[in-house]
Amino acid sequence: MKRNDTLWKGILENIFDDFLYYFFENADKLFDLHKGFEFLDKELEQLFPADELEAPKFVDKLVKVFSLSGREEWVLIHIEIQGYNDHDFARRMFTYFYRILDKYGKPVTAIAIFTDSNKKFHPKFYEYEFLGTKNIFQFNTYKVIEQDEQDLMQNENPFAIVILTVLIALRQKKLNDEDLFKLKYSLAKNLLERKIGRKKIDDLLIFLQRYVSFADPEYNVNFDKEIQGITKSQNNMGIRELVLDLAKKEGYEKGIAIGKEEGKEEGKEEVVKNLLVSNRFTIAEIANFANVSESFVIELKKGI
Q1: Can you tell me the distance from the alpha carbon of 244 to that of 271, in angstroms, rounded to the nearest whole number?
Q2: Residues 113 and 167 grouped into a single domain
Q3: Are 165 and 222 within one domain?
Q4: Model confidence, pTM
Q5: Do 116 and 164 fall within a single domain?
């Protein structure tokens, strides 16, 4: 799974309540948010096996949410994060819909979020017609590149920070590290000024730092220092430590254990490669964390 895929899946689960409020202003009247959510990713994979796809998926999630209205106790929300042009996307959304509906027999709503840079790519419905038989399937869509940056900055919903982060990433190719640094710093400062819980702030900072990376790793270090200066706290875990902690949760620590206990290099190679891809750490830091030599890290870096 690509790094951004992992980040998207993580942030959707970490702030899913804010996601619901972002797309449904009356979420508290539609859903029983106190009962929490159930993420049915494995069930979704069974409904749509990867070998059925001609093009790689980006991110998809199926979430069970308890309802407050009607006679249905719970409903399903299907979310697709699409980051590339796919001429068959609308049909795939329709296929997801009828398979989900057929399996669960519960109300289903679908939301497609497009994170690509092509303003012309924005499928909104799937239409089928053959010999008098006709069907039109329409789903909710959201094109990140079409959003207004100022409106998002003023939006108090934490999920707006996620969208702003993606907007920065879309502009990244046109910016040098210095300009990118200013944008990330401004967004981080805006986030830290919001009245939301520390856990969500940490999750959003990790998403911002890892989704938008600098070409020069030294800017990552400087960014960490600036953010720590804003928080003015020595007790809170820094972004670097937060990212490292997330790396462990994603399985890097397990990889190290395998490498040590079984005497194999595969586990350590996986750790080093993932940390190199994150573009967050120096060669020395990666070598120290993975318990390998710097030459080992440098050699693996050549193949990435």
Answers
A1: 11
A2: no
A3: yes
A4: 0.75
A5: no
pLDDT digits (tens, 9 = 90+) for 158-196: 999 999 999 999 988 888 999 999 999 999 988 888 888
Tally the residues of the chain. 304
**Residue 1 reports pLDDT greater than 80:** no
Tell me how many domains the chain contains: 3
Look up residue 293 and give its two tokens: 């030599």
Judgement on whether residues 25 and 156 belong to the same structural domain of the protein: no
Cα of 169 vs its chain's centroid, Å: 12
Helices and strands per DSSP (H, E), number in the chain: 15, 7
User: Range of 269's domain?
Assistant: 251-302
Pairing between β-strand 108-114 and β-strand 74-82 as defined by DSSP bridges? parallel
Q: 248 is written with which tokens?
A: 């462990």
Query: How far is residue 194 CA from its own chain's centroid?
Result: 21
Residue after which a domain boundary falls, among 146, 175, 210: 146
d(CA 294, CA 282): 10
**Same domain for 124 and 105:** yes
- Work out whether strand 125-130 and strand 133-138 pair parallel, antiparallel, or are unpaired: antiparallel
Question: Which token pair is 296?
Answer: 């080992």
Cβ atoms within 10 Å, residue 14: 18
Domain final position from 146, 177, 200: 146
